[in-house]
Amino acid sequence: MWSNRWLFVLAAAGSAVGLGNLWRFPYITGENGGGAFVLIYLICIALVGIPIMMAEVLIGREGRQSPVNSMRSLTQQHHRHRAWVLVGWMGVVAGFLILSFYAVIAGWALKYVFSMAGGGFAGASGDQAVAAFDQFLGSPWEMLLWHTLFMALVVFIISRGVVAGLETAVRWLMPLLFVLLAVLVGYGVTSGGFAQGVDFMFGLEWGKLTGAGLFDALGHAFFTLSLGMGAIMAYGAYVPSSVSITNTVVTIAVLDTLVALAAGLAIFPVVFANGLEPGQGPGLMFVTVPLAFGQMPLGALFGTLFFLLVGFAAITSAISLTEPALAYFVEQRNVKRSKAAAGIGVVCWLLGVGTVLSFNEWADVHLLGQMTFFDLLDYFTQNILLPLGGLFIALFAAYALPKAVLKHQLGIKTALSEKGWLLLAGVVAPLGVLAVFLVTIIGLDNIRAWLS
């Protein structure tokens, strides 16, 4: 069990707050025109993200086991079809595969901590920032070193258990993350571009929001909360019965959203102060941000703090990705937690080697269409396993569990509250996830052509 509600909040927020908030959210906001996108994103969090997260936590707390065994136990107990157990397996597999390439990307952040601290970007030009990133990606041995270091840190933490490992990590890392983010926002205020950054983030320019942007907002609202991969379900198994799931999940969603917004307020003022383009895509973090900090007073210090922040967020997210598989092996195979952690770490590390090579030696090796090894893992997990996992989790909670279980776990006291939650979890959220799934797989243009 978590020692208290706030440690669960910090752990789940740590799972949710990762590269998606600090890396992806700012650049997709930039690509979709700012404030209008942010507003749609917040609505999607409320209507899709929160109901599915509540469903994951309540299944985990009711099952009190790993995602696989929780689903197996609940299907047997309530006489549901055993195919529902596949939902637990999908989460385990998704978390396992995602960690293999997540650790590689997170290794980039660790590398940039030392690059910024060493003054590697002081006075650098745009071409130099691009060349430095390309040179790093072109070196498999250097990428492998940082991938290995990150994976070793994660294995060390998770091998120590829930209290000594997970709780200790989040007890220190999450407050540090919030402090670092606050310092960077304060730095953004003094950068000279803060007013422009705020206007960009919160100015409602509906003309810049496209249909694709709407689905980006909906998709990110789902993915940013770590839904569909079993991590929240595994963490939910450790939640004390006295804790309110509704209040806790809303708190987690608010924290996650505040971090995403604060990341934008830390990044965009620096970008605007240096006359750079906010819609830079994935290169915003590893090219534009180092370049911007390299041009500013005390840029090396604050650039180092920024990538420390990214590293902390990545570690807390990576820890949660291991928990579904780790809990299963400890329960089902009676393996010591430290040995299970080491085994998972080694296999994820080996899979991660494929991702490392996808950026250099195997860059021209295409496994499906034009997809590299990394592209295929990313596409399969993000676009298939996670949406389907989230969809079925919501449907299982809304329709397969008895109403008495829902009322008990969620503390529902009125018929109106029950109907409201069932509407969101059983209709609105599944339709939202299904829409994102279909648009991603089929393509928005193809769907429009078919409808016309």
Please provide a written account of the structure.
By secondary structure, the protein is mainly α. It has one domain (5-451): Amino acid/polyamine transporter I, CATH 1.20.1740. The chain is built from 19 helices and no strands. It has helices spanning 5-16, 19-31, 35-63, 67-77, 85-117, 126-137, 140-158, 162-189, 194-202, 211-223, 231-236, 245-273, 283-294, 299-332, 337-358, 373-400, 403-410, 415-442, 444-451. Helix 3 (35-63) runs antiparallel to helix 12 (245-273), helix 3 packs across helix 17 and helix 4 (67-77) packs antiparallel against helix 5 (85-117). The longest helix has 34 residues, at 299-332. The protein starts with a helix and ends with a helix. The mean pLDDT is 85.
Quick take:
With 452 residues, this protein is an all-alpha fold. The chain contains 19 helices and no strands. The mean pLDDT is 85.
Q: Which sequence of SSEs, written as H and E, runs from N to C?
A: HHHHHHHHHHHHHHHHHHH
How many discrete structural domains?
A: 1
Overall structural class, as computed from helix and strand content, comes to: mainly alpha
The chain-level mean pLDDT equals: 85
Which fold name corresponds to the CATH topology? Amino acid/polyamine transporter I
CATH architecture: Up-down Bundle
Q: Please give the CATH class.
A: Mainly Alpha
Care to count the β-strands? 0
End-to-end separation: 54 Å
Structure annotation, total helices: 19
Give start-end ranges of low-pLDDT stretches.
Answer: none
The gyration radius over C-alpha positions equals 21 Å
Major pleated sheet: none
Proportion of residues in helical segments = over 70%
Strand content: under 5%
Give the overall form. Answer: globular
